[in-house]
Amino acid sequence: MTPQDMEPRIVRYGELQPCKTAFIDAHTPGSNQKENFTIIGGGVSESPDQHVHISIPHGFNIGAAGQPPKCRNSLHDHHTAEVFFVLSGRWRFFWGRWGTAGEVTLEPGDIFNIPTGIFRGFENIGTDYGMIMAILGGDDAGGGVMWAPQVIEEAADHGLVLGDNGKLYDSKKGQHLPDGVKPMPVMNEDELAKRPEPTTADVLPNHVARYWDLVALADRKPVTVIGETGLLRDRPGFEVDFVTRESATEEMHSYDHPSVLMPVKGHWRVDWDGGSVVLAPGDTMSVPENLAHSAVPSMTGEAALYRVVGTDDPAGATWRG
After folding, report:
1. Is the dihedral of CA 153, 157, 160, 161 positive or negative?
2. Furthest-apart CA pair in the chain: how many Å?
3. 158-216 per-position pLDDT tens digit
4. 0.85 exceeded by the pTM?
5. 3-state DSSP call for residue 109?
6. Which domains does the chain possess?
7. Any residues with CB less than 8 A from the CB of 213 and at least 6 apart, and which?
8. 148: closest CA among 123, 184, 175, 112?
């Protein structure tokens, strides 16, 4: 495979195309400055404005959220796994019916396998624009987003209505629900009562891994962070490994599923039979199944990356209580 063949499978951080109208809270004060990115797969955007960088099915989706300080992503849920790692900034994640059941603050490199079945949100509590990278289970990303009732109600007050077809309609642009399309129903109290409200102590041990802990653990070989035998034991339809300078190897290897390389720190040289490329933090590279390749730091200094590999596991729920 030549470098020209591989080029469409590489998305550079500086070339990411944001969508500012991706979700129902796009007009809601406090959330109206966020940017959504769909890097690999169809994503979960509710807007036709969303740009997809790589549409090749992988069995999972890769996306990102970029937000200035004090900008918040509203409470929502997915049918499948949602994993975030912090690329830049300082972020507070919170969850529960009203976002008060628990919370955790994450720094660059930290990773969070957010339990499904609970509403979750996040906000940039740093001083600069921040970016978090996302992995969503399944090719269809679980069929969209489920919003907390108050999010849908507040959005309507600011002109945005979500149809039961999963599409947004903006009254500020003169749009309205087409014939045959009804507003997306909100969850009733019985449905809401069935949702767990895990505390911070419930969630942290099995769902959060800290960057510096992973660096220490990956001093000789890569660490499986999320997987059947991972630190965060789960089978969400993909595995996530953490690789550092000390655990990287020039030995060629391949997988029978597509994989994705996502540097967190440092520059990484990826070699394969036919070409080579250097990745920087924020870049995303899709490696085809069965393509032998290697990834090693190309410069001195701190170096770490996350590697995502598809599996045959169903992209199901992660919260087991």
Report:
1. positive
2. 61
3. 999 999 888 899 998 899 999 999 999 899 999 999 999 999 999 999 999 999 999 99
4. yes
5. coil
6. 3-207 (2.60.120.10), 211-310 (2.60.120.10)
7. none
8. 184
